Amino acid sequence: MLLTSPGSPCQQVHSQLFAGMDLWMKRDDLLHPQVSGNKYRKLKYPLLGLQGRRSHVVSMGGIWSNHIHALAHAAHALGLPATALIRGAEGMHSAMLEDVRALGMQVRFVNRETYRQLRLGESAWRTHLEDAGANALWLPEGGSAPLALRGVAELIAELPFIPDYLAVACGTGATLAGLLAGLQGRSKVLGIAAISGGDYLRTEISRLLVDAGYPDYQNYELLTEFHHGGYGKVAPELLDFSRQFVHETSIPLEPVYTAKMLFALRQLWHHAYLAPDARVIAIHTGGLQGARGFVSI
């Protein structure tokens, strides 16, 4: 079954970049070969709710969106029609768009203003996709619906131990919120914003928790200074760091999310932000297909 998984391994990290640190990595990049990482967990319960129904699934993203890529594979496997509203203009190309079209997903481009309107709520998309049907399922950007938190929360039960810190990259805040839901007040989550101006994510995290029926947990810290220029921006020092990490550990990375999180974690470790005896688990959120848009690491 596509949406049933035995979980992912948690392995100790041995790298000179983190010398002396008790660091482990939750390898959610290994959850599924195409429906990768946190996208698998976030899609699980929204799509399980469609079992036995041929509902049209509609979502939004950019031309390299990990969420859209994962959704296309999941919808294809489940026999569900799907449409992606993509920020951009007709004629734009990417390997991700080629993949999803080959899987039968419809792609419709929208301009930046329309994309901003789509972010405002579920009702906005219907003016751009009137043929989806009354029972269509709308998934917001990144798949970050309140129901997504339930799938992410299941990660905690798979851990070999509850660490002092969990570290995770943040795009919409839903994965961090799901981890808080699973931890139920234990440990502390370090959220590394992969976007510039990410302070607003604190409001999103609280909203998602409350909307999903969880307490508004506050055992986390959101760090917003490690975005390397903004979403999808990659500095040379980040690429150098990623290459060394991959060489030493054989754990593949992509530079948009997980590499930024690990780079930040190394800075925190070397600046004594973390206690010398702290046990840390870093979450690999997958999305390796997105690395195709960058210089190889």
Extract low-pLDDT stretches: none
Tell me about the largest β-sheet: 6 strands, mixed
- In the CATH hierarchy, what is the architecture of the largest domain at level 2? 3-Layer(aba) Sandwich
CATH topology of the largest domain: Rossmann fold
Under CATH at level 1, the class of the largest domain stands as Alpha Beta
DSSP, total strands: 10
- Rg, Å, rounded: 18 Å
The termini sit apart by 32 Å
Give the structural class: alpha/beta
What is the domain tally?
2
Q: What spatial form do the alpha-carbon principal axes imply?
A: globular
How would you write the strand order of the largest sheet? Answer: 1-2-10-7-8-9
Count of runs of 4 or more consecutive helical residues: 10
Report the order of strands and helices: EEHEHEHEHEHHEHEHEHHE
Family: Belongs to the ACC deaminase/D-cysteine desulfhydrase family.
Cofactor: pyridoxal 5'-phosphate
Organism: Undibacterium umbellatum
Keywords: Pyridoxal phosphate
What this model shows, in words?
This protein has 297 residues and is an alpha/beta fold. It folds into two domains: 10-38 and 147-293, Rossmann fold, CATH 3.40.50.1100; 39-143, Rossmann fold, CATH 3.40.50. 33% of the residues lie in helices and 16% in strands. The chain has ten helices and ten strands. The chain has helices at 37-48, 66-78, 95-102, 112-118, 148-153, 155-158, 174-183, 201-211, 236-249, 258-270, and strands at residues 10-12, 22-27, 57-61, 82-87, 106-110, 137-138, 165-170, 188-193, 220-223, 279-284. A six-stranded mixed sheet has the order 1-2-10-7-8-9. Strands 5-4-3-6 form a four-stranded parallel sheet. The longest helix is centred in the C-terminal third of the chain and has 14 residues, at 236-249. The mean pLDDT is 91.
